[in-house]
Every structure is written in structure tokens, then in C-alpha cells.
Amino acid sequence: MRNRLILLGWLQLILSVASPAQPPVEGPRHILELLGNRIMAETSYRFIDTTNRTMMVTNPPRPVVPSVRILSDYNDWNYFMGVVLSGMMRTAEATNQSKYREYVLKNFAFIFNHLDYFRDQWEIQQIPRASFYRVFRMNMLDDCGAMGSALAEAYQAERDPRYLRMLQRIGNYVRKVQVRLADGTLARPDPRYMTLWADDLYMSVPFLVRMAEIANDPRYSEDAISQVMGFAKRLVDPGTGLLKHAWFSDSEERSVAAWGRANGWAVMAQVELLSHLHPSHSLKDSLIGTLRRHLTAIARYQSEGGLWHQVLDRPDSYLETSCSAMFCYGLARAVNRGWLDQSFAQHARRAWRSIASRVRPDGQIEGICRGTEVGFTMQYYFERPTPLNDTRGIGAVLLAGAEMIWLEGEVSRGDSTKTPESK
After folding, report:
1. How far, in Å, CA of 396 to CA of 83, rounded?
2. What is the pLDDT of residue 58?
3. Under 8 Å between Cβ of 359 and 325
4. How far is CA 27 from CA 175, 352, 417, in A?
5. How many other CB atoms are found less than 10 A from the CB of residue 420?
6. Residue 169: CA count within 13 A, CB half-sphere
């Protein structure tokens, strides 16, 4: 007996050395607070004169100075801040901390309180990169769709008439100005004429379904549905079930890569559509089927460690954080809403563990691919850099963390299996 105990002791020692315990990963609530607090701390609501680096605490000077800009990138108007602001709204709901919601409202108030100043820079002084220039330019979905979706939430909270006028302007642009194929599917004039970018599903669909609610106009939600169907018809690779990054109308061919974040944009767009679509809509079951097929295909390409690759079906490409967060969010939301069965929760949990491990103690996130055009070679995607804390992935991590709180039943109020937006 004594020898047997000694042998068992040695075996336990050997196993502990060969398989060291994994370091604990903080739960989603901690990660959300870490990220949210860092974002708020780095949002200054101030201005800077770029010629002499003088910082201004109060309003920018009059008459308009051409060199004045907003100081903090978190105060800017761009598509990735649109995702961050939506993520902060979900963080407020998931953590029961209203400060994150108040942050979103304060940020939009800051933008709209100073739009006229920077409009004068843009229109009168012809400053092409004036702060908020995308609002004034508005010649692509990146300029308005994601921020429009977040602004719709702010409007529903505060009913500021300035917000409604901007939402109407964005709605007019998306529905009547943005180029489209003959069947109404949204397209871009580049890199080749009338190209479909998977990114544009998120740059349009969440705004359209929220605008349908605000305007009480079903034409917006019907447009959103047609976008999901039109993009899926052209971008899905039948061999993998994944979306290619783009589709070229001149050759009727898909682009080279199943880029991770392109698929992530599509997943998040579908999730937002289904979250706001009326339960009795005749196409809801069909749309759930489209999302289910997409997420099932994505789950097949999850790495052993829980993340997904930059090019999903190329394991020799690097593991990328933003698309992994988007898929984690989509999987968790789909399980929470009953669009996927509970077996898919394991994919979301594995993803979250690895995503959380990429969040540094100071709240910065590693492994986010920077902005990416439609590439014509696989190498282009393989070589995209991943700067520390690139804003293009922060919002997705916030959304994923919030949905994981609901998945794990950590929300104290209401039904923990459904998010507050459940219809």
C-alpha cells in the first residue's frame, strides 16, 4: 500500500509538471468594466490646436481656426466608434451600470454640440480632414451606417430633434443615394465597379432595422432583409459555407479570401436584424436558417484554442481577435434567443476564454487586425498588421462580453436567457 501511494504521488507530480494549470481568465463582467472604464478615461471631450499642440478645455475658438481638431479618437464619428458605442450600451445593460449608457449619450451630445464648428472648417475653409468630416462627406456606408445605428439608440433614449434629423439624412443616403445592383443589393464603386463588400451588411442592416422602429416604416426593415438575402446569395462559398470578403459584379466572381472580420460583420448584421424583426414576420424562420447555416460553418473552423484565423479556412494565417469576438457574440446571442441549440454554447465559451486572455491588465486588447480593403491575394490578408488596441475590435469585444454575461445567467434582473432587446 505504501509503495502504491508513493507511485501515485510521483504520477501526480509528473502530470502537474507536464500539464501546468491554465492561468485563470477573468469573467466577462470584469473584462467589460476594464474596457469600459479605460474608454471613458481616454475620452477627453477636449480640443487641440495641431499647429502648436495647445489643448483647449472649453469650446474651440471663434472665428473658426483651421488647425483645431478634437483631441480624443473616442469622440470621433466613424464606423468603429459606432460599434464601440453600441457595445457600451450593451455593457450598461449587462452590468446594470448606467455610467456606460450615460457615456454614449454624453459622447453624442459632444458631437452634435460642435458639428457646426467643424462643418465650417469642412465647407468654408475646405479642410478635407476636419473632425467629423465623415458626417459632412457621407459618400459611403462606412460614413454613416454603424454610427447611425448607435445614434438611433441615443435618440430612442433622449428624443433629441437634432438626432432625428441626422437619422433621416442617413436614411435618405442609404435608401436613395448609395449605389446598388439592379435588384437593390447595396454595392460600392471600388475596387471594381459595383463590388459587394461583406462589411456593408453591418454598415447598413442594424441602422435600417432600428430606423424602421423609429420611423414606423416597414420599408426600412424590408430593405434590411433584402440585403441579407442578396449578400448571402452572392458571397457564400458553397464549398465551405463561409462568406468571401467581396463579390465582383463585372465578373460575377467572389474574391479570394474568407476574411474573418468580413464574416463577423455579416454575423453581427444578421443577429441585429433578427433581434429587431417582428416574431411573426413571414421570413423570420428563413433568416434564422441563413444565420444558423453561417454559424455552423464558422464553428467548424474554430481553432483548438478557441479563436478563429484571420482567413477562416487557412490555419496558416494568424489567430485574430476581432472576428473571434464577433463570432462569440453571434453564437452567444443565437443560443440565448433559441436560434441555435445549447450545444453551440461551448463554442462561445471557448472563444470568450481566449478573447479575455488577450485583454491586458490595463484594458488594451491584442491581436486586432487593422483596417483592411478587399484584397486580391491571400498574402495581403496574411500580412495585415495587428496594432495594439486597434479600435476596430474594441466594440466587438464589448458586445461579446455582454452577451456572455447573459449566456452564463449572470444578469440579476429579468429572464437571464434573453437580452433586454428580446421581442
Report:
1. 7
2. 82
3. no
4. 41, 9, 18
5. 15
6. 15
DSSP of 128-197, one letter per residue?
TT-TTHHHHH--SGGGTHHHHHHHHHHHHHH--HHHHHHHHHHHHIIIIIS-B-TTS-B-BS-SSSSEEE
Tell me phi and psi for residue 186, to 5 degrees: -65, 140
Neighbour-count burial for 116-142, b at 16+ CB within 10 Å, e otherwise: ebbbbbbeeeebeebbbbbbbebebbb
**pLDDT tens figures, 222-242:** 999 999 999 999 999 999 999
Strand-pair partners of 259: 311
Grid cell locating 65: 481656426
N-to-C CA span, the chain: 63
Decide the pairing of beta strands 246-248 and 253-254. Answer: antiparallel
Maximum pairwise Cα distance, the chain: 91
Nearest to 335 by CA among 229, 252, 416: 416
* Alpha-carbon distances of 104 from 89, 98, 265, rounded to whole Å: 7, 10, 22
For residue 188, which phi and psi values (nearest 5 degrees)?
-125, 155
Of 54, 55, 36, the closest CA to residue 45 belongs to 55
Beta carbons within 8 Å of 102's beta carbon, 6+ residues apart:
none
Q: Which domains does the chain have, with CATH numbers?
A: 24-407 (1.50.10.10)
Asked whether the bond before 128 is cis by omega within 30 degrees of 0, the reply is: no
Cell numbers at 55, concatenated? 489643448
With b for 16 or more beta-carbon neighbours within 10 A and e for fewer, the 151-183 pattern comes to bbbbbeeeebebbeebbeebbebbbeebebeee
Confidence at 360, pLDDT banded by 50, 70, 90: very high
- Angstrom CA distances, 376 to 141, 146, 250, 252, stand at 22, 26, 15, 15
Would you call 27 exposed, middle or buried from its count of C-beta atoms within 10 A (0-12, 13-18, 19+)?
middle
- The three cell numbers of residue 32 are 467589460
> Is the model's pTM score more than 0.90?
yes
Cβ–Cβ under 8 Å, residues 195 and 187: yes
